[in-house]
Design a protein that fits this description.
By secondary structure, the protein is of the alpha/beta class. It is 34% helix and 15% strand. It has a single domain (91-335), classed as 3-Layer(aba) Sandwich (Rossmann fold).
Length: 337
């Protein structure tokens, strides 16, 4: 099968490209050329800007992809550029979405109002009624923060009549290459010899869906190669959504940390560790559909996944941010117990 991957050079993208190539598919990657990831030598590279994709239609037609995977469509404009460029060439499109489309995420972040949402989240759970999660904020991770919304991406992908689409809703994804360094917040404290790690009482009990990047690539490859995925939405997550306290305990086990996880009332937490919104809103997920319909299962167990991620975090730590590791404030909060 010939697969065109849009934006396959950051974090999850290279894992997907390598997986598809390893499985014997012909892969081309369309990207700006600013990040040349470690990809198999037989992968084709087409360099260009998404906004100028119309200029690359001939190149796409020459490659003749059967399926297109858009790893990096963040806005309605992003996905429309892709759809317009490959319509009439590819027979299906797969888009990477996020569980931030769910109403529960709107409740968690305080973006929307309403009662706490029941768990776990299924593909039929309510999605947000409000658009543009981060409009007006200073979210440095997003190139077009005001127009970011995966809900808009999903609507285009599933609403294009002559180009069947598939949507994958991803949870918190961890692993080597994670630009958000999701384990570092806890790992550094353990490596710094902290004997106690603080959590707010509500956050400690909150369950969150997670998945290791290699296993996400397995899920993407399945939806690319199985025509039964056409027109479907799939949650991707580990079978068990751990609480934050249990997640920290899993990391502690892998690094041999024997300290204590201490839960404090939210109002007693130091300022740099406080969360806003409905902190108790969980984001646990049910991934039964992709397992039952496409036979998805994890190829890398959690212990190995954590070991790989921990090793990478230590080798490639993020720039130090003293404000995130105010140990004096944490010790003061602990002393008031």
């Amino acid at each position: 099968m010939r697969v065109l991957v849009i934006g396959g050079t950051q974090f999850i993208g290279p894992y997907v490209v390598r997986r598809l190539s390893r499985d014997g598919h012909e892969v081309a990657v369309f990207h700006r050329g600013q990040t040349e990831a470690n990809l198999p030598h037989n992968v084709q590279h087409i360099h260009g800007d998404r906004a100028e994709m119309a200029q690359f239609v001939d190149a796409f037609r020459d490659f003749a992809p059967e399926v297109v995977v858009d790893m990096r469509a963040l806005t309605e404009s992003d996905i429309r550029h892709t759809v317009d460029a490959v319509r009439g060439i590819a027979r299906r499109i797969v888009a990477i979405s996020s569980m931030d489309v769910y109403h529960a995420f709107g409740i968690l972040t305080g973006f929307e109002e309403g009662p706490l949402q029941p768990m776990p989240l299924t593909e039929e759970s309510p999605v947000r009624s409000k658009l543009f999660l981060y409009r007006g904020t200073q979210n440095s991770r997003l190139p077009d923060v005001d127009n970011y919304d995966k809900l808009m991406v999903e609507r285009v992908v599933l609403g294009t009549e002559d180009l069947p689409g598939t949507v994958l809703r991803l949870p918190v994804v961890y692993g080597p290459g994670d630009g958000q360094h999701r384990l570092w917040h806890y790992l550094k404290r353990k490596d710094d010899g902290r004997s106690e790690i603080l959590l707010g009482e509500r956050a400690a009990k909150r369950r969150f869906a997670r998945s290791f990047v290699d296993n996400v690539a397995v899920a993407v490859a399945l939806t690319v190669t199985d025509e039964r995925a056409a027109g479907r939405i799939y949650n991707v997550s580990e079978p068990e959504s751990l609480t934050e306290a249990d997640w920290i305990a899993q990391i502690a086990k892998r690094v041999g940390w024997d300290g204590k996880i201490v839960s404090l009332p939210d109002e007693e937490m130091p300022e740099h560790l406080r969360e806003s919104g409905a902190i108790e809103q969980e984001m646990a997920a049910d991934s039964t559909r992709i397992r039952a319909e496409l036979g998805f299962k994890e190829e890398v167990g959690r212990d190995d996944a954590l070991d790989e991620t921990i090793a990478w975090e230590r080798e490639s730590p993020p720039p130090h941010d003293p404000a995130r590791f105010d140990y004096a404030a944490e010790d003061a909060a602990l002393s008031r117990r």
